[in-house]
Amino acid sequence: MSFAICFVCTGNICRSPMAESVFRARVADAGLDGLVVVDSAGTGGWHEGDGADHRTVSVLRANGYESAHVARQFRADWFGRLDLVIALDEGHLRELRRLAPTGADAAKVRLLRSYDPAVRGDLDVPDPYYGGMDGFEECLEMVEAASEGLLAAVREVVEERAA
């Protein structure tokens, strides 16, 4: 049985597709393809059907990541098939926990940067949408830093299930 994870930001065109691409690469590098399913969505549907923001695509490609993506909105009925829902900021965390049908589903929602042991204080990945390329590059750095700890946590669960 695979482990399913979904990254969630506001419109699913900047932060969450970036996190999805980075984490999918980490999963592949760790040899966990087929055991971990990686996805992303937005809390809102404003950009449903659109590709990722061109700056997200540019930063991902410049750093060797795949960037194919189609935006969509997170749905409450997805909780049943997901093991972990990763919010990119506190606002997403609150909204996703409100959407959760049960307390167990709400407990599946975590902040991405909570997996980065170097972070002290603010756990938000700032929305780069209204800024320049430097914001997208900073976003990628935060996502990459947190992805290592997240991968370790996911690997532990996957290995426990296989035992």
TrEMBL record:
Pfam family, one: LMWPc
EC number: 3.1.3.48
Enzyme class label: hydrolase
Domain of life, source organism: Bacteria
The keyword Transcription appears for this protein: no
Domain Phosphotyrosine protein phosphatase I as annotated: residue spans: 3-153
InterPro entries from the UniProt entry: LMW_PTPase, Ptyr_pPase, Ptyr_pPase_sf, Tyr_phospatase_low_mol_wt
Keywords: Hydrolase, Protein phosphatase
SMART domains: LMWPc
Gene3D superfamilies reported for this sequence: 3.40.50.2300
Segments crossing the lipid bilayer: none
Family of this protein: Belongs to the low molecular weight phosphotyrosine protein phosphatase family.
Name of the protein: protein-tyrosine-phosphatase
